[in-house]
Amino acid sequence: MVMIYSNSRLWLYENCPEAYKIKYIDRTFPELPSSVHAFLGSMVHESLEFLYNEIKSGKTVELDELVKHFAENWHKQYTLCVRIPVGDKEGDYFNKGVKFLVDYFQSNKPFSENTIETERKILFPLDENYAIVGYIDRIVLNEKGEYEVHDYKTNSFLKSQEEIDKDRQLAFYQLGLQALFDEEIKVKLVWHFLAFDKKIHSKRTQEQLDKLKEETLELIKKIESTTEWSACGKAFCDWCSYKKLHGLGKEESSKKVFTRNGNLSG
Ligand SMILES: [Zn+2]
User: How many domains, in total, are found in the chain?
Assistant: First the structure.
């Protein structure tokens, strides 16, 4: 049987091995309310998917229609369970989402690029035993015959060109597109940083992609041979903040891993 990994699964191992163990091995990860940041991200993604699907089916979408769609969806889906930092207001995040969409709309209208897919699932093999799965926000086939991967980021960190040129997720998308269409296709990777109204482009060579496949297989081997699962103890880690909130992790096994990281106060 082929084992399937994803970028977020690998990311979780790299950032908090204990959280990884709870989620993917023990499968006892608590059902946590989603953070307001994640909620905002999913609402904005959904609205952009709506926008491009309407355009694809030959309709036009005005800015007020897009904002209305976002607002209706937000109010329908926002529940009291969404986790919001103390002192912050729901309205601030809602307004942020509106601003992202307004800026995106103004900078990218009339959306005449040849969008061929939205929210497209990709799946490609690393070898005969392992595969990677992912979802691409939007795929464009441009007039030069290049495939463009468009990915939207709603967080408030802007990555540097150097970081983007090394980003694993984007490279996985390229491998996914090659599996979907053909290995010889030309691919352009585009990240939209919505909070900055900024587009950053990147490319990968076949050598880089082959090397990434090897490195990913090595990482998986490391994960599968791990026996000691340290916790990151950081405030943004869902698992570690859950543990702190519920007074868990005081037993000696966790204490050992906590002191190794020395980061409990975070
Ligand atoms: Zn953690």
Answer: 3
Task: Tell me, yes or no, whether 196 lies in a domain.
Answer: yes
Q: Residue 194: pLDDT above 90?
A: yes
- Mean predicted confidence (pLDDT) in 186-191: 96
Q: Are residues 189 and 236 in the same domain?
A: no
Enumerate residues 6+ apart whose C-beta is below 8 A from 25. none
Establish if 70 belongs to a structural domain. yes
Q: Give the DSSP H/E element, type plus range, for residue 17.
A: helix 17-20
Other beta carbons within 10 Å of 200: 20
Rounded distance, CA 237 to CA 38, Å?
A: 13
Task: Calculate ∠ Cα 132-138-139, nearest 5°.
Answer: 85
pTM: 0.88
Q: Are residues 51 and 16 in the same domain?
A: no
How far apart are alpha carbons 174 and 152 in whole angstroms?
Answer: 16
Supply the range of the domain harboring residue 245.
3-31+230-260
pLDDT at 266 over 70: no
CA of 258 to the centre of ligand 1 (A): 10
Q: Which of 185, 146, 199, 189 is nearest to 167 (CA)?
A: 189
Residues composing the chain: 266
Task: List the shell of residues around ion ligand 1, using CB closer than 5 Å.
Answer: 16, 19, 231-232, 237, 239-240
Same domain? 87 vs 120: no
